[in-house]
Write a structure and sequence with these properties.
Blueprint (H helix, E strand, L loop, with lengths): L5 E5 L5 H10 L4 E4 L6 H8 L4 E4 L17 E4 L10 H7 L2 E3 L5 H18 L1 H9 L5 H4 L10 E5 L3 H9 L6 E5 L7 H7 L1 E3 L2 H7 L2 E4 L13 H5 L6 E4 L8 H10 L4 E4 L19 E3 L8 H21 L5 E2 L6
Parallel strand pairs: 1-2, 1-3, 3-4, 4-5, 6-7, 6-9, 7-8, 9-10, 10-11, 11-12
Antiparallel strand pairs: 5-13
Helix pairs in contact: 1-12, 4-7
């Protein structure tokens, strides 16, 4: 390999089809390094010669940074970087960080609605019963609900939360949202029929609470025994954000006791979840393996956005959607 080649490591082990997409889109003069297995020894061997890494879902561990002497850029495949980035180690080395919003809001918001419908209409339960030869039509009808006309609370009104609000428009929902950093313009609030309220009001009044906020020290376990106790007994919790924002043990207790009706969960802490995760035994929990952003359409958009950023960086050092690590505590 020529020393003039810029080497980009895809930090996660992925199917060859994924590698092929990234390899075909690499900027001129750049070479994609991939993993033959989910093996840290191979990962560190290739990290040692990488000029940049593409991160998702595997994270760059702080102890790996000193083992990557050429590393200059961490490019996230998506937008979730909080709590998953070795800020101090990267800042010390002057390694830069960029995120990639392309593809994420549209596909994650669709998955959030899919989980809402799955919980409201008991779709996984009905499917499993039919495969066992059981017909639950009369059993499910009295406990299923419409999405139309419900009160939906969005916790975190960034790109994804806003996309969820837009997707909900045909269903004539009453919308509430809370976000300490975002206040939608009054005209947009009126158009979307979403009103900004404190978190406790949102939890108390919503039929469906959907989480779209980053994992930080301030948001860790923001959904816990106390917050779940304020929700309606017939309410549903959706989490397509990060696993750490929900206390999974508390959620399992709330689902088991009837404190809330159901939950649709796409993210866990840790990932993959441990075999004894208390949510696994509950038929009112709909679980998916962190695939809210996982469609081929979203991947194509992410590849386009991230490789374009790599090209800018290798060409002249410029970046779009850069996170300024020097401004972080």
């Amino acid at each position: 390999m020529s020393d003039n080649v810029r080497r980009v490591l895809y930090l996660s082990h992925a199917p060859e089809k994924v590698y092929t997409m990234w390899r075909a889109a690499m900027p001129e003069g750049a070479e994609l390094l991939t993993l033959s297995a989910n093996d840290d020894a191979e990962r560190l061997e290739k990290l040692a010669i990488a000029d940049a890494v593409i991160v998702a879902p595997a994270v760059l561990k702080p102890e790996w940074v000193p083992l990557a002497p050429r590393l200059k850029l961490v490019q996230h495949q998506g937008v979730g970087w909080e709590g998953e980035t070795p800020i101090a180690a990267m800042r010390e080395r002057g390694i830069r960080l960029a995120i990639n919003p392309l593809g994420t809001p549209e596909v994650v918001s669709e998955h959030a609605l899919a989980l809402m419908f799955a919980c409201l209409r008991h779709i996984p339960r009905a499917d499993a019963a039919m495969r066992r030869g059981e017909w639950l039509g009369t059993a499910i009808r009295p406990i299923s609900r419409n999405l139309r006309g419900r009160t939906v609370g969005i916790v975190g009104m960034g790109r994804i939360g806003s996309a969820v609000a837009a997707l909900l428009q045909p269903f004539n929902v009453r919308g509430l949202y809370t976000d300490p950093a975002v206040k939608l313009p009054e005209g947009l609030e009126l158009a979307l029929n979403f009103r900004r309220v404190p978190l406790d009001v949102l939890l108390r009044e919503s039929d469906i609470v959907t989480l779209h906020l980053p994992a930080t020290a301030a948001t860790r376990h923001i959904i816990n025994d106390a917050s779940l106790a304020t929700m309606k007994p017939d309410s549903i919790l959706i989490n397509c954000a990060r696993g750490a924002v929900v206390d999974e043990a508390a959620l399992a207790r709330a689902l088991s006791s009837g404190t809330i009706r159901a939950a649709g969960i796409d993210v866990f802490d840790p990932e993959p979840p441990l075999p004894d995760n208390p949510l696994f035994g509950l038929n009112n929990a709909v679980l998916t393996p962190h695939v809210a952003a996982g469609t081929i359409d979203a991947m194509m958009a992410k590849v386009e956005g991230a490789t374009a950023n790599l090209g800018r960086f290798f060409r002249d050092g410029s970046l779009e959607n850069e996170i300024d690590l020097t401004a972080l505590a």
